[in-house]
């Protein structure tokens, strides 16, 4: 599996490939808006892309990392396995019982 950063970049590219209207919008951002925020046009564009990605994840009822996995997993089964693995790690870091965590987030273990 690719490093998380590489995986996320791949997901962003796939996300844009599926939304040509968003790509056009991002390619025609007003440079004055970027300047007003103290950002380069590339930074401003990147921020808008991430906002759109996160909004789509929220619309789908997913965390952004879940959308990344969904867009980059080889199969639906691979997506589910990776998703559960990350959720297990989060539960461990939070010091939560796995079944309690699953119940809280509506996950089928």
Automatic annotation (TrEMBL):
Matching InterPro entries: DUF6388
Protein name: DNA repair protein
């Amino acid at each position: 599996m690719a490093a998380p950063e590489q995986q996320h970049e791949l997901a962003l590219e796939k996300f844009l490939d599926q939304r040509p209207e968003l790509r056009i919008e991002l390619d025609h951002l007003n440079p004055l808006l970027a300047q007003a925020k103290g950002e380069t046009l590339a930074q401003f564009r990147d921020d808008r892309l991430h906002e759109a990605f996160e909004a789509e994840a929220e619309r789908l009822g997913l965390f952004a990392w879940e959308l990344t996995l969904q867009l980059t997993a080889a199969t639906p089964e691979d997506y589910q396995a990776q998703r559960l693995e990350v959720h297990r790690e989060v539960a461990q870091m939070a010091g939560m019982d796995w079944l309690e965590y699953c119940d809280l987030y509506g996950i089928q273990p």
